[in-house]
């Protein structure tokens, strides 16, 4: 008989995140990153970076290297122009995601291409379970994939159900919810922990209330649990080993 380990919930309020403010960039850091260091917030399981950035018109990150990291970018508002050493070049639109497995090493640049609008995004890093693999790249146009009041599996360790395979035992879902609706998070023995990042709106999860920018860690999550929308909401859900 399976014995359920004790559930632990840890909320990361949006207003308590680290921050950096530059002329071209305003950033909020869920976990320690760059010059922001907090030993109590170094990541959760394989989830290492959860940065909420606003890039002003004409701003961006010039060409720089990454290796051995799974990198996901979700565009909330505006656009992001991407170029990399794998010869990928694209403008990622609001509501869409981009994935790079840096593997043995890549260079890339990211800029706001608009002359009038800022870019608002999340950049998320997972530590891989395989080092020095061949770099990979993929895009996820959520306008074509995500159904309202359902969880859409975008990325997984095994690439099931048309998701993109990643180098980690993790499942990444997107959810768009209407006020008053609920989502059932399915059981997963291989990924017993979870992180919920609220992109926008207001939800309740196992007695915790989350508003825009809040995160919630669930260590030893229940076999199934509900996410209840108190307002129209968008979430990213990570099931982690």
Key features?
mainly beta, Jelly Rolls, seven-stranded mixed sheet, seven-stranded antiparallel sheet, 2% helix, 53% strand
Mean of the pLDDT scores?
Answer: 96
Please give the alpha-carbon distance between the first and last residues.
20 Å
Number of helices: 1
Which homologous superfamily in CATH is the superfamily?
Jelly Rolls
Biggest β-sheet, characterized? 7 strands, mixed
- How many β-strand stretches? 22
Could you say what the CATH architecture is?
Sandwich
Task: Tell me what the structure shows.
With 241 residues, the protein is mainly beta. It has a single domain (9-240), classed as Jelly Rolls (Sandwich), CATH 2.60.120.10. It is built from one helix and 22 strands. The chain has one helix at 142-145, and strands at 8-12, 18-21, 25-29, 47-55, 60-66, 70-77, 79-84, 89-93, 97-101, 106-111, 119-126, 136-140, 151-156, 164-165, 170-177, 182-185, 193-200, 202-205, 208-211, 215-219, 225-229, 233-240. The strands form four sheets. It has a seven-stranded mixed sheet, with no helix packed on it. A hairpin with a 3-residue loop joins strand 2 and strand 3 (25-29). The protein is globular, with a radius of gyration of 17 Å. The relative contact order is 0.19. The mean pLDDT is 96.
């Amino acid at each position: 008989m399976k014995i359920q380990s004790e559930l632990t919930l840890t909320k990361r309020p949006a207003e308590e995140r680290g921050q950096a403010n530059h002329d071209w960039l305003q950033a909020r850091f869920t976990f320690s990153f760059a010059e922001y260091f907090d030993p109590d917030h170094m990541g959760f399981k394989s989830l290492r970076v959860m940065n909420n950035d606003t890039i002003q018109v004409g701003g961006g990150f010039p060409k720089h290297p990454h290796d051995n990291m799974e990198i996901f970018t979700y565009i909330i508002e505006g656009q992001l122009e991407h170029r990399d050493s794998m010869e990928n070049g694209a403008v990622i639109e609001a509501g869409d995601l981009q994935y790079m497995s840096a593997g043995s090493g890549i260079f890339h640049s990211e800029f706001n291409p608009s002359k009038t609008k800022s870019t608002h995004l999340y950049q998320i890093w997972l530590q891989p379970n395989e080092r020095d693999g061949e770099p990979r790249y993929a895009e996820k146009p959520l306008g074509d994939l995500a159904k309202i009041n359902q969880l859409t599996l975008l990325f997984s360790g095994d690439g099931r159900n048309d998701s993109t395979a990643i180098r980690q035992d993790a499942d990444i879902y997107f959810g768009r919810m209407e006020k008053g609706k609920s989502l059932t998070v399915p059981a997963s023995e291989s990924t017993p922990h979870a992180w919920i990042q609220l992109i926008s709106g207001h939800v309740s999860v196992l007695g915790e209330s989350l508003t825009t920018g809040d995160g919630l860690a669930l260590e030893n999550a229940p076999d199934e649990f509900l996410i209840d929308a108190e307002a129209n909401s968008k979430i990213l859900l990570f099931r982690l080993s």
